[in-house]
Amino acid sequence: MTGTATPADVAEIELFTYRQPSRYCESDRLEAFARSEFGGL
């Protein structure tokens, strides 16, 4: 599939919800893993 889509207009404050820890993801462990694996990108 090819094509492009325009991004939705989303205010920065609306994204804040997705940056909070969740019971479904141990964010403190995920952050450490992401930094070790992808920190040099």
Number of strands: 0
Helix content: 25-40%
- How is the main sheet built? none
Mean pLDDT: 80
Distance between the termini: 27 Å
Tell me about this structure:
This protein is mostly helical and 41 residues long. It contains two helices and no strands. The longest helix has 12 residues, at 27-38. The model has no long low-confidence stretch (mean pLDDT 80).
What's the quick description here?
The protein is an all-alpha fold and 41 residues long. The chain contains 2 helices and no strands.
Give the topology, please:
Layout: H1 12-15, H2 27-38
List keywords for this structure.
41 residues; mainly alpha; 2 helices; extended
